Amino acid sequence: METILKDCEERMKKTVASLAADYQAIRTGRASSALFDKIKVDYYGAPTPLSQVASVSTPEARLVVIQPWDKSLLSPIEKAIQKSELGLNPSNDGKILRISFPPLTEDRRKELAKQAKNISEQSKVAVRNIRRDGMEEIKKLEKSGNISEDQQKDAETRLQKMTDNYIFKVADVAAAKEKEIMEI
Questions:
Q1: What is the pLDDT of residues 91-111, one digit of tens each?
Q2: Measured between alpha carbons, how far is 125 from 22 in angstroms, rounded to an integer?
């Protein structure tokens, strides 16, 4: 029974961590190198993460500089960024790529906030699905006679409290991201 609860808690922690990682990829008014974590560049025929072929830095609040280790990758990196859903246009000076982040419009902020809310809802659903799986496992233990009915009720109560706690954590992370998106 304890292993079921620990497994559920571990999975819920991963869900919250995944939400935070997904939120890093949502562009706010500030430049962030984390935005480029999911971009893959065609490197000798193989899709390779940008961070493995170039250094990504943020020297200013609204500027990202990408310096490839191999100058021949400037064009493929530029194309990969343009194809991404970030809506950014890098400027290529032959040595490095500069990407300036214009301030977000009010409509774009609202759109990003809505996207962030949808991601948080998916995380809440994932946490609830983990709870459902845990409840099923606990009921199987009770039916097989490995635990008593009282132990089952106790475990289900603990699992529900854990679920409520992680739903609250998801809501906290979502509220912080929405605040970050909406600030000018």
A1: 888 888 888 877 778 887 888
A2: 15
Confidence label for 180 from pLDDT (cuts 50, 70 and 90): confident
Q: Is the Cα dihedral 37, 42, 44, 45 positive or negative?
A: positive
- Does residue 105 sit in helix, strand or coil? coil
Q: How far, in Å, CA of 30 to CA of 7, rounded? A: 37
Secondary structure class of 180 (helix, strand, coil): helix
Q: Which amino acid is at 47?
A: P
> How deeply is 12 buried, as exposed, middle or buried, from its count of CB atoms within 10 A (0-12, 13-18, 19+)?
buried
Q: Are 135 and 1 in contact (CB under 8 A)?
A: no
In the three-class reduction of DSSP (H, G, I as helix; E, B as strand; rest coil), residue 119 is classed as helix
Contacts of 112 (CB under 8 A, 6+ apart): 26, 27, 28, 104, 181
CA proximity to 53, closest of 78, 82, 35: 78
The pTM assigned to this predicted structure is: 0.70
Average pLDDT over residues 49-60: 85
